[in-house]
Amino acid sequence: MASHTVTTVWKENMQFETDNPSGHKVLIDTSEENGGNNSGLGPKAMMLSALAGCSGLDVVSLFKKMRINIDDFKMEASGELTEEHPKYYHTVTLDYHFYGTNLNEEKIKKAVDLSIEKYCGVMEMFRKFADVKTAIYFHNK
After folding, report:
1. Three-class DSSP labels, the chain
2. What pLDDT tens digit does each residue of the chain (141 aa) get?
3. 89-100 β-sheet, strand order
4. What residue intervals traverse the membrane (predicted)?
5. pTM score > 0.85 for this model?
């Protein structure tokens, strides 16, 4: 069974440095209004980045297998936090934006659906605590 371990080290004030099993490092911090220096990624927002990154990796991999060509691709993830502590995302939206000429919308939708429904483990984790909504937008040139 696969597992991951990360090490997170306090640097100063409210700033931490965390690693990834690949060895890459990221700074975590909070806003100045919460006592930090705003010099790193916020933990909750980083979860949204993980969701988009996970699904994005799936989609790009599937595009290669399905021979889908696009000019550009971006995702916008947003989350609504609960009012009470501990605050967590109760609703999350992940929007997929595809740019290109003569986009094959059917194949692109199939690739996105496979990520959403089958491959993206982070998406499945989010479903355990949040209502996850997705939408696909095509921007044909």
Report:
1. CCCCCCCEEEEECCEEEEECCCCCEEEECCCHHHCCCCCCECHHHHHHHHHHHHHHHHHHHHHHHHCCCCCEEEEEEEEEECCCCCCCEEEEEEEEEEEECCCCHHHHHHHHHHHHHHHCHHHHHHHCCCEEEEEEEEEEC
2. 899 999 999 999 999 999 999 999 999 999 999 999 999 999 999 999 999 999 999 999 999 999 999 999 999 999 999 999 999 999 999 999 999 999 999 999 999 999 999 999 999 999 999 999 999 999 998
3. 72-81, 89-100, 131-140
4. none
5. yes
* Strands 131-140 vs 89-100: parallel, antiparallel or unpaired: parallel
* CA dist., res. 6 & res. 127, Å (int): 23
CATH number at residue 61: 3.30.300.20
The whole-angstrom separation of Cα 12 and Cα 132 is: 35
Whether residues 48 and 6 share a domain: the answer is no
